[in-house]
Amino acid sequence: MLEAYREYYETAQQALRPGATAHDVHRAVSKGFTERGYHLGHVTGHSIGMTMIEFPKIGEGVETELAENMVFSMHPHAIAANGRECLYMQDTWLVTGQGGKPLAGLELQVFA
Q1: Which residue from 37, 49, 68, 100 puts its CA 20 to 30 A from 57's CA?
Q2: How far is Cα 74 from Cα 59, in angstroms, rounded to an integer?
Q3: Cβ(21)–Cβ(95) below 8 Å
């Protein structure tokens, strides 16, 4: 699962760009998970505002176009086919003209 998360992190840097749809971003960042046989939770991301989960959501069928300076919480929720194991991390991203920029500035790392 961590390998798929690393792939998502790299893909998000290209996918989160002005003009891309939320659906396109979802498909791009979820590809590494689904190709490995993982299921995903409710959405792969969402906007940040006054409530926890704001529109637009980054998910299947959401045709909203992203614009520069939008901020998204991205959190692919990877669930193993057996439903017992999962990995769920969250990052905050800025949409820029050059692509997605992670705002935390931290390396993607898991401590065991």
Answers
A1: 37
A2: 11
A3: no
pTM above 0.85, yes or no: yes
Q: Which residues of 59-89 are buried (b: 16+ CB within 10 A; e: fewer)?
A: beebebebeeebebbbbbbbbeeeeeeebeb
Residue 71: closest CA among 87, 49, 51: 49
- Phi and psi at 77, nearest 5°, equal -105, 95
Burial 8-33 (b: 16+ CB within 10 A, else e): bbebbbebbbeebbbbbbbbbbbebb
Phi (first) and psi of residue 84, to 5 degrees = -100, -35
Calpha distance 28→14 (Å, rounded)? 9
Per-residue model confidence as pLDDT tens digits over 91-105? 999 999 999 999 988
